Amino acid sequence: MDSDLIPVRKLNQFVYCPRLAYLQWVQSEWAENEFTAEGTWVHRRVDGREGWLPDPDQESDFRRQARSVTLSAPVEGLVAKLDLIDASAAEAMPVEYKRGSPPPQPSDLVQLTAQAMVLRENGWKVERGFFYYAETRERVEVLFDHELIQRTRAAASGLREMVARSLPPPPLQASPKCSGCSLAPVCLPDETLLLQSQRAPDEVRQLLAPSDHALPLYLQTQGLSVGISGEVLEIREKGHTVANARFIDTSQLCLFGNIQVSTQAVREMAQRDIPICYFSYGGWFSAMTTGMAHRNVELRQAQYRCAFDSTACLRLASRLVSSKIQNSRTFLRRNARHLDPAVLAELKRLISSAERAESLPTLLGLEGMAGRIYFQSFPQMLKNQEFLDQGGFDSSTRNRRPPKDPLNALFSFVYSLLVKEMTVICWSIGLDPYQGFYHQPRYGKPALALDLMEDFRVLIADSSVLTMVNNQVVDIRDFQRVGDGVTLTTAARRRVTEAFERRMQEQARHPWFDYRLSYRRIIYVQTRLLARHLCGEIPEFPPFLTR
To answer: Is the full-model pTM beyond 0.85?
Structure first.
């Protein structure tokens, strides 16, 4: 099919909301909600090809119907998939199925008129068409006059001009259309306008669901296998099904160690955009299986341009490092007992220095200094004195690869889970998780995921670790020494994973938009805002700072 032909469905979207058309057609974004699902259900009768059309030049008094017919019109520059064509040699009438009720919307009238134009170019006489509304079971007739034809051609011309631009159209201003749009979490209309200084904070509507209904599935028992049966994943042990999980409830499949996945399961999960994340037995995030990469190549081009622009790269890196230090300072101020005021004063000085840093190496040094101060003060937040007395933490330094003490082993494992989350979200949005701005690319290191982690290390990972130790979710007996390092036992790793997921589902107030979301949704919003910044829609990337 000629790629320059405009799909009539996109013409409908352009008239309804130009930004929606750009996001779906140019950036290949798609999201499901109850309205799109209802539309799919309404169209079930006409989505399968059925019937046949007589030749428009053939003399016949018999009327024929054909469903799900695709026709193109190169002169008009359109291609259409028609729900239903009611035709005889004398006349053809397009019928478009809609889920709602009359009257027809302007965007729907353009869509039906474009279908008539396609039919006319293919030799049919077309004077009228119909909408069928599933909610009221009404059939509404439309006459294709000159005004409708001209309006449709003008819309097609406007869509072509929009596609030629490098930026999506601006969001609609306070439009009720946004509330029912499945792409509202992608578009972020009010959030984008706020960050463009075109909207007040108290005017930002919460168009995002507070939490995700689908969650990661973690499997840690060695020797398990995963297959599929209908709409569920089957988890098997020695050939017997021991558990199952519905695809609709699963956002990721996370496998630790030696767990097998059938080819059928891998293919089905790739088609449904459910990533499979592989961890080593000890919890090191090592690989990910996904479907095809996101088709929004212009976002990755913008990412690479920024990464190779030293000024833009440094500006982003400074924001990330300064916000990380600021969140660390707030965390210590809230939770540490008998904290020396000089610690907070020094961290405040380092925040200011990071904001004014003139190079990435300088930033790296500032982050290192802040990290040493933070981890040396970390024991003052621990209430489980027994854990410390039994050698649970060497507070002189943060050690890893391998971690030398239980608390550092806990940090490493939870950081690995958080890196996985960041990598999955970057990939799903269309960013390259391996091209960062502060963390420089290195083989096998998801640099962008590590960049985006900076705002959330303390808020999600360190907070989870502190809660687990203070509430004795883990103790010294949950760790074992392996070679030169320390690692968690399998049973403890399950408890830690559960605690991490509880934290990811906890809701917090977004400091810029003043509504509450789960931390997982907040990470998604922040990554979307980074994409908006990289593409030039918002002037600065807003860091996530705890209050």
So the answer is: yes
